[in-house]
Amino acid sequence: MDHTFNHTDEAEYTHSNVKLWNPKGFIFIGVIFSFLPVAVLSSLNYGKLGLKKERNYNLFVFGALFVLLIAMSSFIQSNIAKAVFYGFNIALSSYMSNKQLELFKKHIERGGKKSSYVIPVVICLIITGLLIWAIIYSIHIPDKSLKIDDDEIFYTERITDAEVKEIGRFLKRAELFGNDNLAISVGIDKDKESYIFSLVVIDEAVNDLELAEYMKYLGNEMSQEVLNNQPVKVKLRDERFQVIKDIQ
To answer: Which pTM value belongs to this model?
Structure first.
C-alpha cells in the first residue's frame, strides 16, 4: 500500500486539523487488549486522511483474521492457543505500527495534530470488563450441549457423545423431556466416584419435596438403565449452572 502524501502536496496541508493516534502506542494497545482495537485505530487513522482503500482493507483483513483465530482456538489446547494469540497480537500490532510511523511523522511535520489514547483505552477497558463479566457469569456452564426437542442436555468433556444420546433417550422415556413447549435444561458430568445429574430450576422450586423425590427416582433409574449401575449424584442448579442444592 502507498502511504505517501503525493496526493496532498499543496502548500497548505489539507489535513492539518486532523488528529491521528501515534502508531507507537499500537504495540501497547495490542499487548494489553489484542490486535483488533489496533486494527480499528489504524483504520481510523487512514480514514481521517481520506485513505479509504487502506482503511477498508485494514478493517476487513485484520477483522477477518481475528475471527479466524478465535474460531481456531476452540480446536487447539488452551495453553497453545494463548501463546499463538499472544504472538499474533505482538506481531500484527508491530506490523500496523511500522506501517503508519512514516505516515504519522509526515502528518506531524506538516502541522497535523496528535490524538489522545484516553478514549480508546477507556472503551477497551469497558469492553474487556464486559467480557470478563460474561466469562465469570457463564464459567460453570458446560461447553457442550445436545438439543432434544424443546429441551437441552449440557455435558462436559468427561461424558461421551454416546452417553449423552443414551441419557437423552432415557429422559424422553421418563417423560422429563418432550415436545411440549416447556424448555428443560439438565446437566451430566462425572467425577472419580460417580456421575452427576443436574436439573436447572427456578428459586421457587428449590425446596419442592416432590421434585426432590422425582429427581432421586430419575437418578436411580438412570443408573440402572443407562450407566451400568454406576452411582449418580443429583443436584439442583440455577441458570448459571451453580449448585444451589444437593439432593440426598
So the answer is: 0.66
